[in-house]
Amino acid sequence: MSGTSEPADRELIGEIRSAYEGSAGGWAAGPAGVYRRLAVALVGAAPLPLDGKRVLDLGAGTGVASEVLVEQGAEPVGVDLALAMLTHEREQRPPGVVADAQALPFRDGVFDAVVAAFCLNHVPDVVGALGQCRRVTRAGGILLASTFPSDDEHPAKAAVEVALEGFGYRRPDWYRTLKDRLATTSGDAPALEAAAGTAGLTDVRVERLEVDVGLDDPRTAVGWRLNMPHTVGFVAALVPEDRAALHARAVAALTGALPSSVPMLVLRAQVAGPPTD
Ligand SMILES: C[S@@+](CC[C@H](N)C(=O)[O-])C[C@H]1O[C@@H](n2cnc3c(N)ncnc32)[C@H](O)[C@@H]1O
Questions:
Q1: What's residue 217's pLDDT?
Q2: Residue 63 Cα to ligand 1 middle (Å)
Q3: What would the pLDDT profile of 208-218 be if each residue is shown by its tens digit?
Q4: Residues of the chain below pLDDT 50
Q5: What separation in Å is there between the alpha carbon of 82 and the centre of ligand 1?
Q6: Which homologous superfamily is 7-149+174-215+258-270 in?
Q7: Ligand 1, atom 27: nearest CA belongs to which residue?
Q8: What is the DSSP string of 17-70?
Q9: Where are the domains of the chain?
Q10: Ligand 1 site: residues with CB under 6 angstroms?
């Protein structure tokens, strides 16, 4: 289901869903280590304690933010577009629902908070998704969301992409759209702040944080880039010798000093009204 009316956007969401449906194993093996540290920083930016709170983990993926929330004593419920991401190691996961952020299947005000870790950067209608977050959160509750700023250029990104191109890789169209179109809102602090205001959220603040995610290790950096949903299928389809050669070439390309950290935008906002609990 999707709340987006534009056919091109529905098609985009379908392509994003398919990419993530094929990515759960890769995500858990590579990017999840990086995103776990980002989730710790995001949840740590909450303006109030989340213990005992019912929290929607929007775009839950393989569950790194849910894990951090559980460690803080919160009770998360995951939502994700891709069933495979949501059911990865599902015995150890909190409850989850497959849904689009733009059309959440929950009653008004049922959550105390929404945490959306790197979900909004995939959503064509950011105002619509933020409006849904506001609707399902009780008065006095909070929204916490992270995205990557569009000027984030960790050197591993370009170096690994050049290595991939040497084997015939080309960015999929959906990923180009994320970077070229959707990031003009999700990756721009003033635009993201304005979107949250338009969606009816209050006390909106967007801050840029630098988070140490251990990317100064070339193997970690290559594992991150080669297991992303826009690369993992291409890599898996290579014959084993080429896959090994790609890996070696990508690691060799990262010989200089690599930054250990990446920047992230953190959006904090409130749902207006006195607390209802
Ligand atoms: C970059 S991953 C982040 C996953 C997880 N939050 C983390 O930090 O590791 C983005 C996740 O958002 C999900 N997603 C993308 N578009 C979505 C949408 N419109 N509604 C719900 N989930 C979406 C993807 O399937 C994917 O699991």
A1: 92
A2: 10
A3: 999 999 999 99
A4: 1-3
A5: 8
A6: Vaccinia Virus protein VP39 (3.40.50.150)
A7: 61
A8: HHHHHTTHHHHHHTHHHHHHHHHHHHHHT-SS--TT-EEEEET-TTSHHHHHHH
A9: 7-149+174-215+258-270
A10: 13, 16, 20, 32, 35, 39, 59-61, 64-65, 79-82, 85, 100-102, 117-119, 122-123
